[in-house]
Amino acid sequence: MRIRSVVAIASLFALTLIPLSANRASAQSQGTEKPVLYTYVSEWTVPRAMWADYLKNDAADMDQMKKALADGTITSFGAYAVINHQEGSPTHGSWFCATSLSNLLKVLEGVRNAPNAVAPPLAAAKHWDYIFSSRLYNAHSGTFTNGYLRVGRWAPKASDPDGKLLKSTMAPLLEKLFADGALHDYQIATEDVHSTTPGTIFIAINANGAEGLDKFEAALDEAEKNNAAAWVGFGTTLEEKSHTDFLARVSSSTNK
Q1: pTM of the model
Q2: Total domain count, the chain
Q3: What is the Cα–Cα distance from 107 to 55, expressed in whole angstroms?
Q4: Is residue 5 part of a domain?
Q5: 1 found inside a domain
Q6: Which residues contact 42 (CB under 8 A, 6 or more apart)?
Q7: Among candidate residues 156, 162, 157, 161, the one with its CA nearest the CA of residue 136
Q8: Is residue 249 one of the residues assigned to a domain?
């Protein structure tokens, strides 16, 4: 098993998956948990001939997100197009985050009742929704248009059902990359409303350009060399066959 592929959606993001809004200076070097953050991820398989129309509708949704961010209902949002697309799988997606389920659902109701919710590109598309929760995350404030979303999904074995070793290994590495500016945001999450096996862990990074992805890969290589026992041990606590990845281009993401 190659550990470096660990952060490569489910969806997410999902997961999906992605970030809280805040330029936090507090160190998370030991994977310190924060107040729970909820993330809603919406994914679509849009016919290629309708991609341009989908993006127009997506822009309208982003306008709604900006208002929700301004009034404090949500903490971050973004949109992406999948790069390693597979037949029958999502081509596009979006997400937004909130510190409570009530705020998350409040914004979702607004999006679903908007006039463009029944637009032809959406009516013709297959669709998936996910709701995640996380206590291990961070995000730089601002709007970014050069991001790459890389997400990995893993199911822990019975020997570590909560994925504690995975989290304690990955969280410090991601926090260092975040502090160094290689990541706009990251999140280690589980589904709050389960559509996959309970306990499945989603690791999502929004890299600062393609260079951020290279820095992530290099950091993994170095971590494996410097603490091989910990990383091999972490790998033995995961169901390797449960692992899936995806890579997407983030057209825009905003964190408060």
Answers
A1: 0.85
A2: 1
A3: 20
A4: no
A5: no
A6: 93, 94, 95, 127, 128, 129
A7: 162
A8: yes
Contact (Cβ atoms closer than 8 angstroms) between residue 19 and residue 156: no
Encode pLDDT of 196-223 as tens digits: 888 899 999 999 999 999 999 999 889 8
CATH of the domain at 52: 3.30.70.100
Flag whether 179 is in a domain: yes
Band of the pLDDT at 19, cuts 50, 70, 90? very low
Quote the pLDDT of residue 100: 98
Q: Which domain holds residue 110?
A: 11-255
153 touches 168 (CB < 8 A): no
Q: What is the pLDDT of residues 120-175, one digit of tens each?
A: 877 878 899 999 999 999 999 999 999 999 999 988 888 777 888 778 888 999 99
* pLDDT, mean of residues 235-246: 79
